[in-house]
Specification:
This protein is an all-alpha fold. It contains 7 helices and no strands. The model has no long low-confidence stretch (mean pLDDT 86).
């Protein structure tokens, strides 16, 4: 997930979000012609001094790699969610699995909506926010599956004090 978030940031930073205007294909192809070498050259601006955006072919490559990474992330994290939803795990782990699965569906849907609706700002922001929020159920699953969960103890009901008249208290009662 961390690398997919980085790749999403790279896609956004290079204005590659609309490099593939169709879905599920990219420019009518399953594996589009693109400049994958330039797309993954993170030091291009540092080495050449050029600070412009990537070429159109490199933008297509960045966008397509982000899509492929999204599918791989969906498969891997979907598997994690399915495993964590098993009855053999404590309830907080299963709850984290539910939230992870729901977050994956929302995130994948937002990613598709960004492309299909030509990048509305609010959807792009929501897509970025949900990417970060997906870390929370993963952290919960990791923590509770490793350290377990102890439900809070229920306190015994409070005992009401009974007042006894002073004349009834005698030494022999003790």
């Amino acid at each position: 997930l961390f690398f997919q978030i980085i790749l999403g940031g790279w896609t956004s930073a290079n204005y590659a979000s609309l490099a593939c205007p169709d879905f599920p294909l990219c420019r009518g192809e399953w594996w589009p012609q693109a400049d994958y070498r330039e797309a993954l050259n993170f030091f291009h601006g540092i080495l050449t001094g050029e600070t412009g955006i990537l070429s159109a072919e490199a933008q297509v490559a960045v966008h397509w790699l982000h899509r492929v990474g999204a599918v791989l992330t969906l498969i891997v994290l979907g598997g994690v969610a399915l495993c964590a939803a098993s009855a053999s795990y404590p309830k907080p782990v299963r709850r984290g699995a539910l939230w992870l699965g729901l977050g994956l569906v929302i995130q994948f849907g937002l990613g598709i909506a960004v492309v299909k609706l030509a990048l509305p700002l609010w959807i792009a922001v929501a897509h970025t926010a949900f990417a970060a929020l997906l870390m929370l159920p993963l952290i919960a699953i990791s923590f509770y599956s490793r350290y377990g969960y102890q439900a809070p103890r229920k306190e015994a009901p409070a005992v009401e004090a009974v007042s006894v008249p002073a004349e009834r208290v005698v030494e022999k009662d003790y």
